[in-house]
Amino acid sequence: MKYVLSLVAGLILGAAAAVAMLYFNPLTQSQSVPLGNPELSLEYGLSGADIWLSTHDNQLDIPVVPGDVSLLFEDGIRGTWLSAYRLRADSRPVPVPATRISIPSPESELLRSGFLVEDYWLISEPGAGSLFVHAESNQWPLLRDTLVSVDWLGRDYGGPRKYDPTRGPANAAAEVFGLTGTYAGARGRARERLSLESYDGGLASLSGQLMIRMAANGDDD
Amino acid sequence: MKRLLQLGFILGLAGTFALAWFAPIFEYTRYRSATSVVANGGRVEQFLVHLPVDRIESPAGAEVARDTGLRLSHYKLRDAEGNVIGLAARHELQTGATAQTAWLLTIPSRGAIALAASGPGEGAIEAEVAARGLTAGQSIDQPLSIDSSQPARSVSATGEFSGIDFELVETWVVTGLDEDGGIRGTLRLNTIGRRST
What we know:
Chain A has one domain. Chain A is about 15% helix and about 35% strand. Chain A contains two helices and eleven strands, in the order αββββββαβββββ. In chain A, strand 3 and strand 4 (about 95-105) form a beta hairpin. The longest helix of chain A has 22 residues, at about 1-25. The radius of gyration of chain A is 20 Å and the shape is elongated. Chain B is built from three helices and ten strands; from the N terminus they run αββαββββαββββ. Chain B is α+β, with helices and mostly antiparallel strands. Chain B has one domain (about 30-195). Chain B has helices at about 1-20, 60-70, 120-130, and strands at about 35, 45-50, 70-80, 85-95, 100-105, 110-120, 140-145, 150-155, 165-175, 185-195. In chain B, a hairpin with a 3-residue loop joins strand 5 and strand 6 (about 110-120). Classes of the chains: A alpha+beta, B alpha+beta.
């Protein structure tokens, strides 16, 4: 019996050590930096007038807007998040409407890459045209600091924190494609920065900044 | 005993790392793709949007559309057998008589396609429906079938769609109008994909 207990105690200690290493794993931390001199810097918040549509399968800590919107409960789309915004930009007189479809990636794993999300943005600037942005984001640092640390471990979130989740698909940056209007045929790069003021079980105080830099040759890094 | 403790520790460590590496965090239901090959190369696939049930809307969306002059639509996307397989967004900017339309089709188990079109736009579809004398709340026995005059062409695609050039034709099959004047029926998104050269 004591041999079995020794083996079980070893298993528990080993698993606990592995979980601690995964929690602090440097390979799954944010690795991107904000994009320098973006041509377009678009800001949004997850509360207030910025977000006018937000729906998912009701399993996320993200507000559903409006409250009676159709939820994404079907098997083929469960886990995805659809949201629509009025993005704000200092350089633009009117808000820029945008749709974002976020799909947690089956390639997510906590050893090397983190909690990966495929983000697809459709951004349409009135009087100009539409852009498509494809980003691969690692949301593990945000989840670790909120869901794991606060909700599961009961720790305080602490002060405001910033996250730079963009990790691809192009050299730690998202790919930007001009679709219509003056943007047709254009290419560029984008990165996102998230700021979370506080966390008490919901992400209503989360705000984001999507920085876009266009380049004629499609590669500005 | 000490050896067993060490062995257990190593097994616990390795087992947890293996779990973190191999355990699927997300998997999406993959339905059979109902594609068919066309004679001159490429494959045809039809996606459906049942209106109004698949329209995802917010009252604030109308306000955004009014402020910006854009038509912004969001839909659940179905395969030809009626299974919900993805989400779609449609942004239309009216510039004079021409509408610039951007489509984003996302299917979590397969990838995404971004497409662009230039043509008369959704306003022309509504005008054609109005020209047939349909009024709000009215249903018709013989559905109207109206195609977008200009196909949308893909600009970018990801996942299993990458490396394929797509054309998309919208076919609006109208069976009536809602009480608020919205189209009731089915929006058929007919795609033809050809391997990029």
